[in-house]
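DATA SHEET
Item: assembly model
Revision: 1
Owner: S.N.
Input lines:
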Amino acid sequence: MKEIILEANQITKYFYDPMTVKVLNDINFTVERGDFVSIVGKSGCGKSTLLYILSTMDTEYEGKVIIDNENMKEKKEKQLAQVRNEKIGFVFQFHYLISEFSVLENVMLPGLKFNKFSKTEVEYRAMQKLKILEIDQLALKKANQLSGGEKQRVAIARALINDPLIIMGDEPTGNLDKKNSNIVFDIFKKLSEEESQTLLIVTHDQSFSANTNRTIVMEDGKIVSS
Amino acid sequence: MISKLIADIAKTLLIARWKQTLVAAIGVTFSITMFISLLSFMTGLNTLLDNLILNRTPHIKLYNDIKPSENSPIDQSEKYSKTHNFISSVKVKNRDINIYNSEAIINALKKDNRIKGIAPKVISQVFFNTGQTVLAGVINGIDAEAERKLFHFDDYITKGNAIDLKNTSNSIILGNVLAEKLLVKIGDLIQITTQNGEIFSLKLVGIFQSGLRDFDKTQSFSSINTVQKILGKTNNYITDIQIKLYDVNTAPLLAKDFHNTFEIDAEDIQTANAQFETGSKIRTIISYSVGITLLIVAGFGIYNILNMMIYEKMDSIAILKATGFSGKDVKNIFLTIALGIGFFGGMLGLVFGFLLSSIIDQIPFKTSALPTITTFPINYNLNFYLIAFLFSLVTTYFAGYFPAKKASKIDPVVIIRGK
């Protein structure tokens, strides 16, 4: 049996504003090391909400999130930030690169925060990640000089910098055209196959989810198939 | 390592937004510049005004006051000691204004290590003769050297030299108004008549100007020996002993002490010039409050700019938090930005403050009260610079604290979902 690295245990969440709505209802599933999982469902079914809970950024929920055998409910804000830094890599629909920094610095930031390697080592590792994604020639450009597809690849490199346990994506191809979507998908596929990287991607792109190892389908806050 | 990273991020944000940074820093620079030049100028003027009086006034003056006797004979009588005595029509006692045993007192005072210096004085009424008319005036017999050292006598001499009083026998210095009236110039001989009717000739060696016209109309200075000779007194005849202390604040206490020890009237500077200290204090309070108001206004400027910066940087804050920076790290980034603005703005402010005060120092300023002053007075006090710099850091810290706290509380989910 493979090692379980992420477990959602009876997760329930309500939205209270403007009225009480149960957005997630008793969500249970696990992600094993090396899995390439996609979560699909209609807009408003709660898939993004679930991802934010699993990513430890949203802390108002019932149930348990277990990452790497540790219960996230018991951790404080600062420790959760550390978990996000060390164990989770994020790719969002929007790239969220900091425009004042160069591409290389953007990739390096979480690595410097991790403080496990020296600055030169972090720089070397960042260049390696950029090479894997074939954008190392852009390293010294400012983030706002890049095209949309390039920005998203930089964001993936940033997610990889600390060799995370799991990469979480929230519609990572949502803002991209077909060609760039395919490039991003191919990168994920390559990471999954060659590096055994665990990935959990929320998407509504059918062709994207069809090519992942496992698809979780959600409807009205519940999992209907996984 | 983490603090260095935070400093690096803050630095990059500051430099990337250098125009905004500059505006905020100029606000701080301007207030610090104004704070320093204002305080230096105001306290410079204040000291000038204080010195108008304080330089010329002894800290303690020992003299024999002309006043009614404190002990009436009836009070000393045992027979009436238990009754209440009414005495009407009391008159002042005819008392010699000479300080009895002045030599011994001066010697005792010279040994006192709380005293910076003493200057004895003989004062007498005289008449100045010019043609048919006679002008009433006062002649002060002074120790020119002590007077120069303790009371800045040279500062008021517009023509001639104060020290000539000592070097030339039978010499005199006149107030400028008096000299004009007598139509004399330096080197001329002046005829004076004493209260006893004797006539003397004195040589004019200097003109002084105090700025008080009434004072300059009547006063004149000569050496102690000359005045003693004019009055026909011996050389231990002294009417005033002026004392300058190391610590002016001890004057009232010491005055009481001397009064008891030497059985003589002693007047301290605080009693003689009570209204002066109040004015001086009020002026200091005004300058500090204006200066601090300037800094607080600059603080609000920084607060606004940081607040704006945080709204612009919402995305960056969200991603920093998503990738593992804690709320505290984000807060520290913005506090570093605020303190950076405060530090560099403040530093520049110190430099410009110094430059502006030096410029004010060059502006011509003539006053009849102080003939030796030619430009505006500036008080270069290191304390103002320290206070200003400290205050620039404190204001910017508080101006940055609330926006930084707000940034630390930003929920990344709200920002990321909003896109």
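QC remark: Chain A has one domain: 4-225.
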